[in-house]
Amino acid sequence: MSFVDREFIYFLLVFALLWHFTRGRYELKIPGMLAMSLLFYGFHRWWLVLLIGAYCIADWAAALAIERTRHKKLALLAGLTFNLGVLAAWKYTPLLIVTINSLTGWKVPGTEAIDGWFIPMGISFYGFSGIAYMVDVYRGVVKAEPNLVRFSLFTTFFPHLVAGPILRAKEFLTHLNPGELPSRPEAPLEGTFLIARGLFKKLVLADSIAIAIDPFFADVSGAATAGVWSLPYVYLYALQIYFDFSGYTDIARGLGLWFGFRWPDNFNWPYLASSVQDFWRRWHMTLSRFLRDYLYIPLGGSKFGALRTLTALMVTMLLGGLWHGASWSFMIWGGLHGLFLCINYLWAKTLLSASLARLKGVSAAIWTTVSIVLTFHAVCFAWIFFRLTSLADIGNCIRKLYEFDADKLFVGGSADVPVWTLLTGYAIATALAVALSRAKPLPEAIPQFERVAFARGAAWGVSAGLLVLTAALHHVGHAPPFIYFQF
Fold first, then answer.
1. What mean pLDDT, rounded, does the chain reach?
2. pLDDT higher than threshold 80 for residue 208
3. pLDDT over 90 for what percent of the chain?
4. Would you put residue 482 in left (φ > 0), alpha (ψ -120 to 50) or beta?
5. DSSP 186-235
6. Which pLDDT belongs to residue 486?
């Protein structure tokens, strides 16, 4: 099930009633929330419940073994092997078969099944949550959870299940204990606004962009796009993936707040980053911290000299790219970001970088603007390898960045006036919201509005208006799945 499925409205209503009427009945609420979350995950494919159930049992048992036995490393290795082994089998079998076929000319048995291969939704996300949990137990950061039902709810709770944020035990699991389980919403207004904003981002902005640009990317090497300038399409894809993924995160965090849980944000104005390092502090932040804490730092981080640091950066980003999917283009995408981070690391050690960092006033503003523009274009260039999996298509898209007909600068979807109007309107509304909130983060701005009756009513009105506007503007029919559902 997805947040944008019509069935989700009925599911959410039933879940909310169950959550409300089991207040004070801990022994009923936890199993009830777990059962509903499993229904959410297995709604279209019931056997997925068996898969995620196996993850829950394996991670729970491995963590208990890590805490209670002398062979902690062996128990951790067993848990990691299960998580990564199952993940690799589901995600990378098609890539392995295709690669073997292309390199050897053999036809590996089962090749014909690749076209219909299905990757379970969210397997990368709950797999990484389990890995973080087991490693944290091994490091002594958290205690192993003795209750299987409680741990299973931590893994499967429906708002964050399919596409994150990637939660750690201290951010969710410890709040499921008796006496700590929330009995009322954490921040109803903030949660409602996040849900409304997330639905608008997904159903209006991201899906409208998709309709405009999908034909170009589907035929980027064909006659229909001959001579077309690809740059505006790359820009639009960068916006699409941001609105799509951040929209999901908004909805997930809003639902969490509705049911009493505050989770970390995943995005912080990523396209205003002044370096690629800064970009990864702002984009998919829970994945970034996972890669930092459980891969980059164990590989040596920045403690053992420049060569070790550069190696750790490149390996981390290559694996981070491969995590996204079974295609070599994802690894190239990760490698590009690894290369950008290495260049950023070396640049930061130069005298020129230090001099520019000391600029003030107008000069500093100009250099910051230049840095943001350069970073944005580096990120957009890498998105080409994320959007397209065929190397031939990637090559043609890159070629069309600088080889195009003058009369085809903006044609087709890139000249879709309603799309640009929506984006402009959203930019203006966002700028006004930032000004009214004095650029405060949402958890600080909302309480400020709630203290004044008029402002509180206006904030609720904006949230309701966004929902109505989304219903009015979104394209009728089945909404396409969130982009990150495939990961």
1. 92
2. yes
3. 76
4. beta
5. S-HHHHHHHHHHHHIIIIIIIHHHHHHHHHHHHTTTSGGGTT---HHHHH
6. 72
Residues 6+ apart with CB under 8 A from 14: 36
Residue 116 has pLDDT above 70, yes or no: no
Burial class (CB in 10 A: 0-12, 13-18, 19+), 394: buried
* Residue 469 pLDDT: 93
Amino acid at 40: F
Six-digit token string for 84: 């990564």
Alpha carbon distance 171, 261 (integer Å): 9
CB neighbours of residue 211 within 10 Å:
14
Amino acid (one-letter) located at 352: L
Report yes or no: 220 and 393 within 8 Å, Cβ to Cβ: yes
d(CA 62, CA 79): 5
- Which amino acid is it at 247? G
456, 179 contact by CB (below 8 A): no
What are the structure tokens assigned to 299, written together? 């590989």
Residue 22 has pLDDT above 80, yes or no: yes
Alpha-carbon span 139 to 162, nearest angstrom? 27
Cα 58 to Cα 252: distance, rounded to the nearest angstrom? 26
- Say if residue 283's pLDDT is above 90: yes
Residue 160's closest CA among 73, 60, 62, 33? 33
* 230-266 exposure pattern, b = at least 16 Cβ within 10 A, e = fewer: bbbbbbbbbbbbbbbbbbbbbbbbbbbbbbbbbbebb
Average pLDDT on 204-209 reads 95
Start-to-end C-alpha separation, the chain = 15
C-alpha radius of gyration, the chain, whole number = 23
Q: Dihedral sign for Cα 455, 461, 465, 466, please.
A: positive
DSSP 113: G
Question: What pLDDT is recorded for position 449?
Answer: 83
Confidence of residue 68 (pLDDT cuts 50, 70, 90): very high
Rounded-to-integer distance, Cα 228 and Cα 25, Å: 62
What Å distances lie between residue 67 and 168, 169, 486, CA to CA? 17, 15, 34
Q: Of 203, 235, 176, nearest to 31 (Cα)? A: 176
